[in-house]
Structures are given as C-alpha cells and as structure tokens.
C-alpha cells in the first residue's frame, strides 16, 4: 500500500532543497519551500527559474511546463505554512543539531499522517527519526547534486521505518524519473561512504604536497576517467558538507582511515566552502576559476 503525495514541503532552499523543489514541481507536485529568511528562499527560487530557463533553451523542457512548474512552487517563510503537506523533505545544513531542532519545531505542526524524509548525506536515519514523533513514517531520501541532472536517489530505512513509508517514498521518487538504490542505515550510506574518502585522500595529496590542485584534478580526470576532478567535486558539493560527512564516518565507524584532512578543516574554518561561497580549492570570482593552491 502506498500513500498519496500531492504537496511536498521542503525545508532548506540551498543547493539541494532548490534542486528537489525543481524536480518535484516539474513532476506535478505542489511545493512549499522554506528556509531561514525570505532572501534565501528567493535565491533558491531564482536558481530554479534560471535552471529551468536553461532546460527550455536546450530543448529539454517546454516553456509551458516551465511556467506551470514555477507556479507550483510557493515560498513559505514560517514553518506553520508547511502544516498541510503530505511529505516533508528536510534539506537543511548537514548538522545534526540543526536538523534535530527543525524536527522538534515541525512535528507538532504537521498532519499526523504526513511523512518526513531527510536528504542527509551521512547522518543516521534511525537517530534522526528518533527525534520525531513518527519514527515509522520517517525515511532517508538522498538525492544527488545537481538534483535535476543526477539520476540516482538512495533510499534509506531507519530501524522503525514502516513498509508503507518505504513504498510511498519509492513511488514518489520513481515519479520524479529517478533510479533508486536501497542503502542500509550506516554512516554515509553507499555513495558517500565510497566517494568522500576518495575526496578526502585527494585533499591529503594536496596537503602533503604530492601535487597541486590542477595536477590532482587533471590526474583523476585523464588518468581515472572521472568527469570532474576530486577537488572540483569537493567545491561543488560544499566543503562544509564534505567535512561533516568525514566527521560522521570517522566517529560513526571509529576508524582512523576516515580522519578528515586538516587542510579541509582549515578551508571550512576560513569560510571557503567552495562554489556556493565563491572560493574553495578554486576561486570562482575569476573566469575561468583559478586554483587557490
Ligand atoms: N551538496 C551536495 O552535494 C549534497 C548532496 C546530497 C545531499 N546533500 C545534503 O543536503 C542537505 C543540504 O545541503 P546543501 O548542499 O543544499 O547545503 P546548502 O548550504 O546549499 O543549503 C543549506 C540550506 O539550509 C538552510 N538552513 C539552515 N538551517 C536551517 C533551518 N533551521 N531551517 C531551514 N533551513 C535552514 C540554509 O539557510 C541553507 O539555505 C545536507 O544535509 C547535505 O548533506 C548535499
């Protein structure tokens, strides 16, 4: 048995929240997009609008669908505006304290039937679910970045997630034309368990002076056939998110092989978080971007 999803509430209008809003609205769902300030919601909607315009100009979307999709997205400046949604997708900053606070504030406002999903890249779904009043209606729906482009979605059940929740989430994700892999609830699931240690090792390779930013990215693009270098990819993901995932792996698996590289910590402490802040391993204020080391 699966439930009917008509309206989706998205918490966090950053890279991922705006991408999820994009694909959900495009698939016909009504979307309410919430973030901490009107400015951030507006920036998220502007990103969606720009990306949809690009899809139209490249012939991947009809202009009529673009207009209809955008009209299905409503900004929500207060959490209580999400009270009537069928599904919440939490896509706020990768910080367990932030996410826990959101669930504590949100749960009493929601319809008891509503499902809650987290787009967390690494945090325990079981532990997040336990912060809510509905662990059986809680699931991990892990989209990849950029959401409109990437085909994969990882579905992650917490220990208490009911079949009903899993099947409803599965049919929702399939309706977005995505391919599902199911991952068990262990730190960073499948994709990031494999990807992030590789990125962290690339940062160690830079830190230890084995190669420059350019040498490392060129080596992995041309030598391992990766479409993007690992440092370019780290900037794309967001260095704060990369560091959080490495910390979750390090602490969650209690193994020193996941120790976050001190250079990654330094970049995050500097506020050099990658593309989203204009500077990371590359400086995006220049065109083309210039390596920072
Ligand atoms: N970046 C990636 O490649 C990627 C891929 C898959 C999943 N994720 C996950 O998606 C989530 C969001 O990542 P992102 O890359 O979009 O980050 P981001 O920094 O682009 O966006 C995070 C957004 O959350 C908002 N936020 C913070 N606290 C909030 C609160 N209390 N209420 C509402 N909004 C709040 C911020 O204002 C910001 O707009 C994280 O859990 C991350 O691990 C990221």
Automatic annotation (TrEMBL):
Residues 189-284 form the 3-hydroxyacyl-CoA dehydrogenase C-terminal domain. Keywords: Oxidoreductase. PROSITE patterns: 3HCDH. Gene3D superfamilies: N-(1-d-carboxylethyl)-l-norvaline Dehydrogenase, domain 2 (1.10.1040.10), NAD(P)-binding Rossmann-like Domain (3.40.50.720). It holds the Pfam family 3HCDH_N. GO terms for molecular function: 3-hydroxybutyryl-CoA dehydrogenase activity. Residues 7-185 form the 3-hydroxyacyl-CoA dehydrogenase NAD binding domain. Its EC number is 1.1.1.157. Belongs to the 3-hydroxyacyl-CoA dehydrogenase family. This is 3-hydroxybutyryl-CoA dehydrogenase. It comes from Nitratireductor thuwali.
């Amino acid at each position: 048995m699966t439930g009917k999803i008509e309206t989706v509430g998205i918490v966090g209008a950053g890279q991922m929240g705006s991408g999820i809003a994009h694909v959900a609205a495009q698939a016909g769902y009504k979307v309410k997009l919430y973030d901490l300030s009107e400015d951030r919601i507006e920036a998220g909607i502007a990103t969606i609008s720009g990306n949809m315009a690009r899809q139209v100009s490249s012939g991947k979307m009809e202009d009529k669908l673009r207009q209809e999709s955008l009209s299905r997205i409503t900004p929500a400046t207060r959490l209580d505006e999400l009270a009537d949604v069928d599904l919440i997708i939490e896509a706020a900053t990768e910080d367990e304290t932030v996410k826990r606070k959101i669930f504590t504030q949100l749960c009493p406002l929601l319809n008891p039937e509503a499902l809650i999903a987290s787009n967390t890249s690494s945090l325990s779904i079981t532990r997040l679910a336990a912060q809510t009043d509905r662990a059986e209606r809680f699931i991990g729906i892990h989209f990849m970045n950029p959401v409109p482009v990437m085909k994969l979605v990882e579905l992650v059940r917490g220990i208490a997630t009911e079949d009903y929740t899993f099947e409803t989430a599965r049919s929702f994700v399939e309706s977005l034309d995505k391919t599902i892999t199911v991952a068990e609830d262990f730190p960073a699931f499948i994709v990031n368990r494999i990807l992030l240690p590789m990125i962290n090792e690339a940062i160690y390779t830079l830190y230890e002076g084995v190669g420059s930013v350019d040498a490392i990215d060129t080596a992995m693009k041309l030598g391992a056939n990766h479409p993007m270098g690992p440092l370019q990819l780290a900037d794309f993901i967001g260095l704060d998110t990369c560091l959080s995932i490495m910390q979750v792996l390090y602490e969650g698996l209690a193994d020193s092989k996941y120790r976050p590289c001190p250079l990654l910590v330094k970049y995050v402490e500097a506020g050099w978080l990658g593309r989203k802040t204009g500077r990371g391993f590359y400086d995006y204020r220049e065109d083309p971007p210039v390596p920072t080391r």
